[in-house]
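for the record, two folds in this file. i put them one after another cuz i was lazy. first one right below, seq on top, structure tokens after. the second one comes after a little note so u can tell where it starts
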Amino acid sequence: MSKESEEHASVRLVGDYARGDTDIAADEVWALEAHLEVCAACRARLSAAVETGVPAVASLVVTVWSGLEPSLQPTATMRPRRRRPVWLSAWLTPVMAPWLAMTVGVVLIALALDLAGPGFGEVSLVLLLAPVLPLCGVAAAWSRGLDPAYELTAAAARAGLHLVLRRTVSVLALVVPVLLVAGGPAGVSAAQWLLPCLALTSAALALGAAIGVTRAALGLMALWAVGVMAPPLITRSESTVLDTDSLPVWGLLLALGTGVVIARRAAYTTVPGTTR
């Protein structure tokens, strides 16, 4: 099963997986679920194994489907909904859209205030906000209360660290370009905020293995607002936390956060890092 497109899962492994055997190694479960995503033949074998080996589950599926099928039948006046590309669903969730739009709006407001006048002295709002803005999308991506499909996501194949990293990368891929564009007119260099941004994102993921990604992201945002943003805005002076001299510290924090995520990757296997 190392080459998913050429090999198939063994009959024994498929049967054990269908019966919910707890003796299967975690790496075998991950590999099997990843293989099932791309192999229709093995999915058919799994379905047959469930029908023969776990009749109670098969009966439950039939009962649930019989109740759902009438409401899923299209009517004559119903237009078929345009489906999102499969690859897009793997990287984004609809609940992230309003939060990402709000993030872009905050960037534009901060840029407008920076360009409007000397109201904040030497302080650039774009610079102060840039390191923590991606955390808004990260928090929304893993919110049980905001995502109506959370339970389905948690039960999906490869719903652990693999999916956590995918959604985090998608947030960074959308927010970072906006910050780069806004940084030019504001006179802010990406060298000042990009490394702190990545360090805080990795810290949110690292802490998320213990307290949940959403709580970790919101907590870091609160600490940043009180400890980093408030003093420069009050004193109208530049923040020493974002000086170029502090970049080695941010690099160390990024490496530490990445190391913790890798070391505790098993904590994301059961649920996508947000159950606590």
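(here's the note) second protein begins now
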Amino acid sequence: MKYIEKFHYITHDIPQLTHIEQVQNACEAGAKWIQYRCLSKPDDELLKDINAIAEICDDWGTTLIVTDHIHLNGKADIQGFHIEDMNADFTALRKQVGNDITLGGSANTVQNLIRLAKEGADYTGFGPFFTTETKPNNYPLLSIEDYTLALRQLKDLNIELPVLAVGGIKIYDVEALMQTGIYGIAVSGAVNFADDFIEAYQDFYEAVKS
């Protein structure tokens, strides 16, 4: 099983910071896992971003995951991909990228989680926990009870899959979420829009790890 960090930081298109600046800030705050999520640029601009971000991540020993854009595999120093399409065929994706690349998926139901585990996903983002401006969607929100029950079902089925809560999570949500048995937390807006980016990142990191 591949190493999966417990706290994932996700970049986004925001006016006050470029993706590269977000990554620089996150690495300076101690980030060990960054998901570059940019769905608004053509390939040449994506690769320009990714190459700059990969250099920063390499300097800090940080894992770089790219949201979707799996066609860019092999064109930059990318350690893995996170596929947001909940209907994506992970068996086919795994054949496409090979075993060394980390593949993460998104899930909203226990059935999603079970399928991802069977098809070879290395981890999954499970949510949304709350509404978020950074990634609008129409999926039902998941409660603390939903997380607890889902993780219990996976355990009963002897399925070992790192599951991370995601979607509008605030620092005061982390303790209750971690008590569900969740593997970790993924965050974007609560760090990006904080008054102090680095302090917010470190507060989350410590809350998840404690």
